[in-house]
Amino acid sequence: MTDLSADLVQQKQRLREKLRFRRKHFAANLDGMAQLAAFRALPAPLSERLAGHAVVGAYVAWGDEPDILPMFAGVAEAGALALPHHAARIDAMDFRRWRPGEPLEKGPWSTQQPADHAALVTPDIIFCPLVGFDRKGGRIGQGGGHYDRYFAAHSGALRIGIGWSVQEIDATPRESTDIALDAILTEQEFILCGDRL
Questions:
Q1: Using CA atoms, how far apart are residues 34 and 1, in angstroms rounded to an integer?
Q2: CB-CB contact of 61 with 67 (8 Å)
Q3: Is 181 annotated as belonging to a binding site?
Q4: Residue range of the domain that includes 70
Q5: Of 20, 77, 124, 165, which one's alpha carbon is 20 to 30 angstroms from that of 51?
Q6: Domain membership flag for residue 185
Q7: 139 among the known binding-site residues?
Q8: Can you name the residues that pair with 160 across neighbouring β-strands?
Q9: Is 140 annotated as a binding residue?
Q10: pLDDT band with cut points at 50, 70 and 90 for residue 4
Q11: In this structure, is residue 178 part of a structural domain?
C-alpha cells in the first residue's frame, strides 16, 4: 500500500467515525411519525424504472440505517426483490431473491440476509446503505468494498445510495476502486449524480 492510499484509508476511517456518530444521533432524535414517514415512497424516476418489472436489490436496515423495505412492498410481492447475501467472511457478495414473510438468517457480517438456498439473481437497480455521500455520487460505505466490487462486476445496474441528510459531506475521498452512485435518496430529497436516470 502506498502512502497516498494509506492516507485515503485513514481519511475514510475518520469520516466513518464522524458520520456514524451523526447518523446515530440524528436517527435517535427523529420522532416516531418522522421515522414512519421517511423512505416510504419512491421518487417518480425510480417508480417509472420499477414499473418495467426490474429486479430490485435492497437491504435490511442495520442499526440506525434507514429502513427502505416498505418502499418495495409491491416489488417484493411480485417476487422481484433481492437482498445482499454473503456466503462467508470473504470479498464476494451476491443478491438472493426474497419476499416478505420468508425467513432471514444472520450472515457472517451480522446482517440479516436470505437463506443460502434462495434463488441467486442480478438486480437491475441496487439501493445501498451509506455511511457518507457527496452530491457527485461519491459514497463512503462500511469499508469492506463489497458494494464497489459488485458494482464493478455489474456495471449495468443503476446504483442508488440511501442515507439520512446529515450524512452528506462536501467531497468524499476516492480511491480508484470506488464506484460512483447514479443517485442518492435521503429523507429530504432525491439527488441525481449522473445521466443514467
A1: 44
A2: yes
A3: no
A4: 3-192
A5: 165
A6: yes
A7: yes
A8: 127, 183
A9: yes
A10: low
A11: yes
